[in-house]
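JOB MANIFEST
job_type = single_chain_structure
chain_count = 1
residues = 201
[input]
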Amino acid sequence: MHELTLTPEAAEHRRSSHGIMPLFLNRWSPRSFTSETVREEDLMACFEAARWAPSSYNEQPWRFIFARKEADLVRFRSCLVEFNRLWADRAPVLVAVCASRRFTASGEDNRHFAFDTGAAWALLALEAARRGLSAHGMAGFDGERAKDILNVPDGYDVMCFVALGHRGERSALPERMQKLEAPNRRKALNTMVYEASFPDE
């Protein structure tokens, strides 16, 4: 296992203002994937990492449905918008991230379900990066079609799709996407962290 290594050009965009693990900087969301198979151990370890995310009342509202066989991949791809299909069709694994909107025991609405599921997805993405894999989350998909095709029960939402696999060459992407194929920057810390109260705008 190894962390993704950034090129000097990419590292220019991923400098932290405080000392953190390189893993956080090395995780990014490429669009170019190879067709190389993802090992069973690596795939399951990504889901295992997600399993340990914190959640309200330890509800663990997230559910992951994945595809790696061609017939299943075809079904998953059919849920994606055209732009995402242009690159995600090459990924060897696609994952639908689902979440329950209600608490299991009481049946009451869980207003934290999306927040908690986001934490699980983040841990999945970090474990993927630790293992030299890439994970790219996608909001562009047909949610109703996904629920139907993937047999998602009432009370669950399909939150996102994820392309997972080994990073490919930038040149493998359509020309208009190639210039986007690099780690992006982040806003300055002082634009998102405030002491005591939200600042006046």
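[summary]
The radius of gyration is 18 Å.
The longest helix spans residues 113-130.
exit_status = 0
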